[in-house]
Amino acid sequence: MRFLYIELEKARRTKSFLFTVLLMTVAVFWNLVTRMQYLNKPQLHHVGTLFNSQSVDSLLLPLAVCLFVSRIVGNEKQGDTFKLQQSNGITILLIFYSKLILTVLFFTLLSACEIAIIAGYGYALGLSIPVSVLLIQWCAQIMGSFVLALIYVTSAMLINKSGIIIASGFVGGFLGIVLSLWSLHLWGIINIWALSAYLAPYKYHISGSEQESLRMNFVVDSQLGIRFVIALALCVCVYIVSHRLIAQKEGQL
């Protein structure tokens, strides 16, 4: 806990939280604006319109995690803080886990706030929102943030140029939103930047035919159970790879 508190203070001094909160605030209001347009249609006036796979989080979450990680890691690498900490008996793995836990906890809190705001908007419109839907959405965003945190904390600690890390965040956000429709399929797990969309409780659906009028809706994902199992396996695999990569650099960073 002491190391986590130290990381918290360092992040606060570098204003790492401020920039990320501002970016995620944009994501929340962007999501609300797009959902307002859908909720005006009678067939879309339900909870699925609020919590579905069509979310701007696929674009902004990778970028937000990347920027936050680049600030809490980059400043210390430039000042050779890692070497100083290791000379005092602090292992590189402990540094890695401190930054990973801080990142995951921070984005878990941001996800809870985002869901609460969107749910509050839904309640204000008179929608009935089951608690189970809120919990599923929260778990989806936590797992998505966890995988992104693993990838970017590991990359930031192994790669010296912070510009590459930030560029990868932009690329990840671009792929996340452009390939978001992959989340409709089980194999869409390969788009790891949009994992929260892959695990969303409701999915985008088109009904009708070309001869008839096409109708858009958001329907309950009947494959959520297997999706969470696949996503959990992905989390474990990424964690093992990240742990081994950092452990191999003990004393070299």
Structural summary, described in words:
- The protein has 253 residues and is mainly alpha-helical.
- The chain contains 9 helices and 2 strands, in the order H-H-H-H-H-H-H-H-E-E-H.
- The protein has a two-stranded antiparallel sheet with strand order 1-2.
- The model has no long low-confidence stretch (mean pLDDT 86).
Distance between the first and last residues' Cα: 23 Å
Counted beta strands: 2
Radius of gyration: 19 Å
Arithmetic mean of pLDDT: 86
Name some characteristics of this structure.
253 residues, mainly alpha, two-stranded antiparallel ribbon
Overview in brief:
The protein is mainly alpha-helical.
Furnish the topology, listing elements before pairings.
Elements: H1 2-13, H2 16-39, H3 57-78, H4 81-87, H5 92-124, H6 131-158, H7 162-178, H8 195-198, E1 202-207, E2 215-220, H9 224-247
Helix pairs in contact: 1-5, 2-3, 2-5, 3-6, 3-7, 5-6, 6-9
